[in-house]
Amino acid sequence: MKLLVIGSGGREHALVWKLAQSSHAAQMWCAPGNAGIAQERLKNGSPVECINLGAEDLPKLLAFAQEKKVDLTVVGPDNPLALGIVDLFQKNGLRIWGPNQKAAQFESSKVFSQRFMEKYGIPTAKAGTFSDAAAAKKFTASLGGKCVVKADGLALGKGVLICGTVVEAEKAVDEIMVGKAFGAAGAKVVIQEFLEGVEVSLHALCDGKVAKLFPTSQDHKRALDGDQGLNTGGMGTYSPAPFLDDARLRQVGDAILDPWLRGCAEEKIDFRGILYPGVMLTKAGPKVLEFNARFGDPETQVYLQRLESDLVELLDASVNGTLGKMELKWNPMPSVCVVMASGGYPGNYPKGKPITGLDDAALLSGVKVFHAGTALKDGQVVTNGGRVLGVTALGKDLKSAQAAAYAAVEKIRFEGAQYRRDIAAKAL
Ligand code: AMP
Fold first, then answer.
1. Is 226 exposed, middle or buried (0-12, 13-18, 19+ CB in 10 A)?
2. CA 395 / ligand 1 centre spacing (Å)
């Protein structure tokens, strides 16, 4: 099979790495990819080729897939999905993995998701959806100001403001709806009650009819140790998270996915891709905070290190609507991913810093270094983004996986590198 992967982050490197291990992969491109992706090789020895096309350049991606006669395109990030890349490729007779534009609304519109959850009885926070700032403010007052104000549309993961007082909440509403801090994405908002508890990431692979739940994982969103500092795209993950045992995970999964599948059938939403609910385990039970409509980053890195099944076969079945017959096999060994980021991230950061020690880190047993913001400059791997590397390791238990990931991190150097020292600590 000829495969094209779209995206350039750690998630896409993990996807490419795992797809490349399949005997079905005959040739693979990644648009635009990164320095780590460009070093991957398929089982048959052919190199993965990075092509200089942006993930949102839909017409050029389509032309490329047509010219190369790509058999399956795999979409990593949310933006091309929200722009309708799946609909466009399908209209042109090409096979592509990911939800179509209507199904991608679970991520591209928080108002859509919140209303869907309420309509179909999916456990979620007490919430309201608003297109009027005065009504929104009134609602935040009814929650005593302890709430979370969320811009409706995609805002690079930044459109969520956590508030503790009525004054803060009114300021958040003004910022998003009046000041248009996130542009058109903030024309509407969802306001949820603030929930306390442990947060877990769930993933389910869907084929329009069935949803196959993954094991648990947990992300670390804040920049600094102890969940301090600014929100980021994610500074590290581990899987499985010990807060749900297998039986409880199945229960929680069913409580979310059964009504979700019913709702999709009712609304004629044909969801083929990954549904990734962010879930808060509260004293009153699990509550969905939001849905994403693609693999998490850096959840993908730990999931795919643990996945034993052939990913080409799974994604193919997801596209074909034949997932019901498939089994997802997981390595019982836990995996930990520590993100190494550029100094200054999630604020401004420099690019082009040489990275050393990658070969030494790769020699450690159980370790895979996934690249995110990296590029090749005169034969040297250099930093090229906020999140630079996802240093990922399997271990016989969580503690060993954590130790292996940090041993690899210690070998890698670039000027200004920052990373959290407490990834997976909550579980130990
Ligand atoms: P979201 O993009 O909606 O997942 O929100 C980003 C982050 O904000 C989540 O990962 C949570 O840590 C936090 N968050 C979102 N909604 C709530 C809520 N209702 N209560 C508490 N924290 C929340």
1. exposed
2. 30
Tell me the average pLDDT across 66-80: 98
Q: Decide if 206 contacts 106 (C-beta within 8 A).
A: no
Q: Which amino acid is at 413?
A: R
The answer, yes or no, to whether residue 114 has pLDDT greater than 80, is yes
In terms of Cα–Cα distance, which of 397, 401, 391, 399 is closest to 338? Answer: 391
Which one of 160, 191, 218, 297 would you pick to mutate in the ligand 1 pocket, going by the greatest count of ligand atoms within 8 A of its CB? Answer: 160
Residue 123 has pLDDT above 80, yes or no: yes
Average pLDDT over residues 25-31: 98
pTM of the model: 0.97
Q: Confidence band (pLDDT; 50, 70, 90) for 20? A: very high
Residue owning the nearest CA to atom 15 of ligand 1: 289
Indicate which atom in ligand 1 lies nearest the CA of residue 125.
Answer: 19
**Shortest CA distance to 237 belongs to which of 65, 113, 398?**
398
DSSP 54-109: -TT-HHHHHHHHHHHT-SEEEE-SHHHHHTTHHHHHHHTT--EES--TTTTHHHH-
For the chain, the average pLDDT equals 97
Query: Are 218 and 407 contacting, i.e. CB atoms less than 8 angstroms apart?
Result: no
Q: Which residue owns the Cα nearest ligand 1 atom 5? A: 160
Residue written as token pair 């090749």: 376
Output the pLDDT for position 158.
81
Which of 139, 140, 158, 162 has the most ligand 1 atoms within 8 A of CB, as the residue to mutate?
Answer: 162
Distance in angstroms (rounded) separating the CA atoms of residues 424 and 134 = 42
Q: How many residues does the chain have?
A: 428
Residue to mutate (ligand 1; options 287, 290, 294, 426; most atoms within 8 A of CB): 290
Nearest-CA residue for atom 7 of ligand 1: 160
Strands 335-341 and 380-383: unpaired
Nearest to residue 289, comparing CAs of 217, 212, 225, 202? 202
CA-192 nearest atom, ligand 1: 19
Q: Give residue ranges with CB within 6 A of ligand 1.
A: 125, 148, 150, 160, 162, 192, 194-195, 199, 221, 278, 289-290
CA dihedral 94, 98, 102, 106 (to 10 degrees): -170
Residue bearing the CA closest to ligand 1, atom 8: 160
